[in-house]
Amino acid sequence: MQHIQNYLYKDIDCIHLLGNFIIDTKNGWSPLSVEGGEGIPILGQEHFSFDGTLKISPSKFTEVTKKNIDDCFIQQGDFFVSRGNTVDLVALASVVEEEISEDIIFPDLYIKIQLDETRLDKKYLALLFNSFFGRLYFKYASKGKNQTMVKISSSELYDFYLPIPDIEIQKTIVKKIQAQIDAQSHIDQEIEKNRAKINLIIEEAIRNTVE
């Protein structure tokens, strides 16, 4: 993997080891939970997204508690990485961007990473984790005999070499990528509207034929 990274980054002069920017890592907690139950909501793997924004829409709940449970609640600004998933999706990263008004637990398959934010923009890092560079690295760095569920640990995070330019450049890159994501989202919405119109035309045609 190091040889592959050296080739990919051969023309880039701002390659750094992610471990130099990590202050702390913490795994979440996964108590017994039920779908659509009562108690405290718990996030799942499905809430990670390639656009780097964590989707806050939990469907599982737990009534179990423990000492220092507050340490397992998400907060706005948290940076999470998926600790386990398929070989192609392991180590997806997302940031909690919305304001959190209730207690929500992040599970054991989440790694919460505290970063030096004076040098590294969280959203930039999330997009890089989810990019070709990140997918390739974690595909080969992850561990597990069962290829349908491989895992990473903090050591794979610390050993990740990646391009980290000046933080203002990082923020500019994030803005440009976000503009493209927003444009794609608008196109997707238009496609859905047109698909609904087509479905309506088909339904009316069938109804008229039957009548």
From TrEMBL:
Alphabetical GO biological process terms: DNA restriction-modification system
Domain of life from the UniProt record: Bacteria
Gene3D superfamilies: DNA methylase specificity domains
GO MF annotation terms: DNA binding
Residue ranges occupied by any Type I restriction modification DNA specificity domain in the UniProt entry: 60-192
Keywords: DNA-binding, Restriction system
Family under the similarity heading: Belongs to the type-I restriction system S methylase family.
Protein name per UniProt: Type I restriction modification DNA specificity domain-containing protein
Organism the protein comes from: Methylocucumis oryzae
